[in-house]
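Hey Z.,

So I finally got round to the phosphoric acid mono(formamide)ester thing we talked about over coffee. Here's the setup:
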Amino acid sequence: MPRKDLLDIVSLSREEVDHLLDQAGPFKELFTRSVKKVPALKGKCVLMLFYEPSTRTHSSFEVAAKRLSADVTNFTVEHSSVVKGESVRETIDTLQAMRTDFIIVRHKMAGLPGVIARHTRACVVNAGDGSHAHPTQALLDAFTLREVYPDLAGRRVLIVGDILHSRVARSTSQILKKLGVEVAYLGPGPLVPKVGPENIRRFTDYNEAMRWNPNALYLLRVQMERQEAQFFPSLREYHKVYGVTSERFRQIADQGIYIMHPGPVNRGVELCDEVMNYPRSLINQQVENGIAIRMAVLYGLKPHNGESD
Ligand code: CP
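And the result:
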């Protein structure tokens, strides 16, 4: 039976991952045509329920839904009754009454998209919940890496930064491992969890991590908003110890290592300005691929309420 919701990467089988990545290819080809729309979701309603800020994910889902000809409604928290004290449960009941077909939800509370999914007939997509999961980011990362390495098995990706608070690190490492990629973490000791997925190497020293010979560096955004304690002395110090400085960038370019980042980028913290013009920076490709992946996700989900198309 087709899946109703996309809440995380762990629950996707390898076959489902391959299928979604394969489906995104033809959607991406559409972007080069003068007419970029297909009628696949004509008459369907997509509700964007974002309780946390987002630039890329929000706009990417909106563009994806519109390219599939769906109608999109933005539920803006600051203009909703949530600010008057309405509970999430009341909001869910209201959404249910609207009989929307898809709900795209971002919330700081891990697990909330799953709660919404259980209480609505609509297909629910997790657009990022706390430090838990960001499945469409992971899918677009895997799709982007597969464009440069059609056979991903045995490739090495070093994920750098605040692993502890990162839903991106969690979901992206899970999908890469499903695809046979070797994954390692690099970051300040307190931000690299000791427990967690097995077969992931953990480094706290940049030079030692680079001797592991990664094919790609995946730089995470430093999330000041999720840190209850100060895990490093200053952003300047972070850049010096873990960032791609100008000096490190020259070595990275010499070795032909790809650079990825989920955005938004803190220039001068995770990376120096030169990276933005680096031919092996995949950062803009990740943004473009996000639309194709989200089209594939919306196209592939089906409600379990017996309604036929
Ligand atoms: N990559 C990502 O989730 O970015 P936004 O916070 O801008 O959506």
